[in-house]
Automatic annotation (TrEMBL):
Pfam annotation, one family: Kelch_KLHDC2_KLHL20_DRC7
GO biological process, one term: wybutosine biosynthetic process
Catalytic activity of the protein: 7-[(3S)-3-amino-3-carboxypropyl]wyosine(37) in tRNA(Phe) + S-adenosyl-L-methionine = 7-[(3S)-(3-amino-3-methoxycarbonyl)propyl]wyosine(37) in tRNA(Phe) + S-adenosyl-L-homocysteine; 7-[(3S)-(3-amino-3-methoxycarbonyl)propyl]wyosine(37) in tRNA(Phe) + S-adenosyl-L-methionine + CO2 = wybutosine(37) in tRNA(Phe) + S-adenosyl-L-homocysteine + 2 H(+)
MF terms (GO), sorted A to Z: tRNA methyltransferase activity
Record's subunit section: Interacts with RNF144B/IBRDC2.
Upper classification of the organism: Eukaryota, Metazoa, Chordata, Craniata, Vertebrata
Gene that specifies this protein: Lcmt2
Function noted in UniProt: Probable S-adenosyl-L-methionine-dependent methyltransferase that acts as a component of the wybutosine biosynthesis pathway. Wybutosine is a hyper modified guanosine with a tricyclic base found at the 3'-position adjacent to the anticodon of eukaryotic phenylalanine tRNA. May methylate the carboxyl group of leucine residues to form alpha-leucine ester residues.
Superkingdom of origin organism: Eukaryota
Family: Belongs to the methyltransferase superfamily. LCMT family.
Key words of the record: Methyltransferase, S-adenosyl-L-methionine, Transferase, tRNA processing
Protein name, per record: tRNA wybutosine-synthesizing protein 4
Organism, scientific name: Catharus fuscescens (Veery)
Length: 670
């Protein structure tokens, strides 16, 4: 547990160095310096913003009082005192920090050894006595085990803590490492002994969904199990916990809610453009698995909570489920290498034959961008893997992620866009050619050729997280490339009609309400037109709109498809159309109480039903984002391939094998 403080200080330090927030004291306290990934920077940014928001609000609301105090529990190598003092915010305020005795001693030695830190504490800063490792006029550093309440109380009294003045308790990823009986006792002790107080908590939530299971496993491996989660699994349970232990007010929000409601739009945008970034799914999942809570009691009648109450309807309200869909692993695909990947694309190249290309995954025990193509074919009811030789001149395939593949005939498919790194430009287009004689089990070799495009069509290919859909206009075949993002534009709303097979750019009139720009949406062919659903919009917010691009005499028209109840906004899902119904599979949404399963939208009536995926026969967490899926209409079977991603600092989770979803019970033909 003590080790978590050091690694969190290094991550905060790395985020500050990249400009996520200002803190010149972290580098003095963190010791080692390591550059972390952008996803980690964002995670520590939102944590710092949430804690700062509440601390500064407390200081603002109590500024007219003659005295107040802050008690930081499990403070580790945090720089809070030095930042607040430097900003001139600690008038009439004493900050007490408590941590394990050896952590407190290390920090005390650091402060004494650094002029910049020692100067802020002031000349009176000096040797503490007993459990008091450092004692300055307005800063006390105590070495006590938090689970020993009587010792904590005695040491705080000795250090001068005054129970009668307004007190802010801070527990930033601390309580969860304690046994619940001990953390409950601490919460109750604070309420009983301090008539005027606030309690700020930042920690994990939602242990049982796929991301939560990976998160728990990570902390168990570190030997720092998250105890709170067994008893307090969601935000409502945490709120009830505080209200039941003597606190009279308690507001709570997960970090998606906090980011949306409490961070101004211009600051959101500033943060989003600090580094090339393309891990939206993992960012939103991380945010839905952490909360900030502010409880209070005995404050002035005019007191407003440190966190706004959720005036907008809570994201966390449960999504009503109409039923469930069984998931099963495919008997003969267990342990087949090459299918543990995400950001790839799978396409039916002929009945019962699936080609998977690209993405990031695992090969020979190493994580890397995937070069190898993979073919699955179904024989006598079983999926089997087929090995493929690839004629790939080295640079052409480019090891791409987030591309599309469209099958134009049984010998030809087109790859559009994709990227290597998020700062690279898109990767253009490629032909994939299969031998005409290929047998029923699929091609045994695939030739890759560069497509040379007219200048007018080139921009269509320099994107990723877009969609490419087959459609018809006046009896002619076209590909419709829509949306996505590029190295320059975080979200695109443009489209291209490419006449096949020569891919000439064709201008066709489109009227009607233009859908807002999006990427990571789904697109399906339907009745000659295109159905676009969901996606991630300009402010990195999931969208719940469904549009139909419909053929008219002179061109096309965008039409909105109204769904009821309204479609829960989502992105990074896959989609298929079957007999007038749009099927949406998986994805990421902000409703933290459940994960998206299969949603069925009746395109005639707009009725929208959500089904949970029953995973009781799977032995591992099924992550349904950045996956691919193919639908076999005769069997009403949906084959899900790959999926997963980097789960914040908890490691990479890749679904180990393809999963078959049986939709026969929810797609009853009328």
């Amino acid at each position: 547990v003590q080790g978590t403080g050091g690694s969190s200080a290094i991550s905060k330090c790395s985020a500050a160095a990249r400009g996520y927030f200002q803190d010149r004291f972290l580098r003095l306290l963190a010791g080692r310096r390591r550059r972390r990934a952008p996803l980690i920077h964002r995670g520590y940014y939102i944590r710092a913003r949430a804690v700062d928001h509440c601390v500064q609000d407390f200081l603002l609301k109590t500024q007219r009082l003659s005295r107040r105090q802050i008690l930081s529990l499990g403070a580790g190598f945090d720089s809070l005192y030095f930042r607040l003092k430097d900003m001139g915010l600690l008038h009439h305020t004493v900050v007490y920090e408590v941590d394990f005795p050896n952590v407190a001693c290390q920090k005390a030695a650091l402060i004494k050894g650094m002029k910049e830190l020692a100067a802020l504490v002031g000349d009176t800063g000096g040797e503490g006595k007993g459990a008091v490792a450092f004692s300055g006029e307005d800063y006390k550093l105590l070495g006590v085990d938090l689970s020993d309440l009587s010792e904590l109380e005695r040491t705080l009294e000795e250090a001068g803590l005054n129970n009668e003045i307004p007190t802010l308790f801070i527990a930033e990823v601390v309580l969860t490492y304690m046994e619940n009986t001990r953390s409950d006792a601490l919460i109750q002790w604070a309420a009983e002994h301090f008539p005027r107080a606030c309690f700020l908590v930042y920690e994990q939530v939602h242990p049982e969904d796929p991301f939560g299971r990976v998160m728990q496993q990570h902390f168990r491996q570190l030997n720092t199990a998250l105890h709170s989660l067994a008893q307090y699994a969601d935000c409502e349970a945490q709120q009830r916990r505080f209200l039941g232990k003597g606190w009279t007010e308690c507001s709570i929000m997960d970090m998606n809610e906090f980011f949306t409601c409490c961070i101004p739009a211009d600051e959101q945008q500033r943060m989003q453009t600090l580094e090339p970034f393309d891990e939206y799914e993992e960012w939103h999942l991380k945010c839905s698995h952490y909360f900030v809570l502010a409880a209070s009691k005995g404050m002035e009648p005019s007191w407003t909570p440190l966190l706004p109450s959720m005036t907008v309807p809570r994201h966390a309200g449960p999504v009503g489920m109409a039923g469930s869909v069984p998931a099963a692993v495919c008997a003969r695909l267990s342990g087949i290498p090459g299918l543990r990947r995400y950001g790839h694309h799978s396409v039916l190249i002929k009945p019962n034959v699936v080609l998977t290309t690209g993405g990031f995954g695992e090969e020979r025990g190493q994580h890397c961008r995937m070069r190898n193509f993979h073919v699955l074919s179904k024989h006598a009811g079983y999926w089997e893997a087929v090995s493929v030789t690839q004629n790939i001149p080295d640079k052409r395939w480019g090891e791409r992620l987030y591309h599309t593949v469209s099958c134009l005939s049984d010998t030809l498919a087109l790859v559009v866009g994709g990227r290597t790194s998020p700062s690279s430009t898109g990767l253009g287009m490629l032909w994939l050619k299969f031998p005409k004689t290929c047998n029923a089990s699929g091609p045994d070799d695939v030739a890759v050729e560069l497509v040379s495009l007219q200048p007018a069509a080139e921009a269509a290919a320099l994107r990723w997280r877009h969609s490419t859909t087959e459609m018809t206009f006046k009896g002619e075949q076209y590909l419709f490339v829509y949306g996505g993002r590029s190295a320059v534009e975080p979200v695109l709303g443009d489209w291209y009609f490419l006449h096949t097979p020569e891919l000439s750019y064709t201008a066709i009139a489109v009227d009607g309400p233009v859908p807002e720009s999006r990427h990571s949406h789904s697109a399906c062919s339907w009745e000659g037109g295109v159905l676009i659903a969901g996606g991630l919009g300009a402010a990195e917010l999931p969208l719940g709109s469904v549009f139909l691009l419909r053929e008219l005499e002179h061109g096309f028209q965008w039409q909105t498809i109204e769904t009821h109840p309204p479609l829960v906004p989502r992105y990074s899902h896959t989609a298929h159309v079957h007999e007038g119904k749009l099927l949406l599979v998986g994805g990421v949404w902000f409703h933290a109480s459940s994960v998206p399963g299969v949603t069925v939208i009746d395109l005639m009536t707009g009725l929208c039903l959500d089904y949970v995926i029953n995973v009781e026969h799977l032995e591992w967490p099924l992550m349904l984002h950045n996956h691919s899926s193919v639908f076999l209409p005769d069997e009403k079977e949906l084959l899900v391939i790959g999926g997963g991603g980097n789960c914040f600092s908890f490691g990479t989770h890749l679904n180990p094998e393809p999963v078959s979803l049986s939709l026969s019970s929810i797609l009853i033909s009328h």
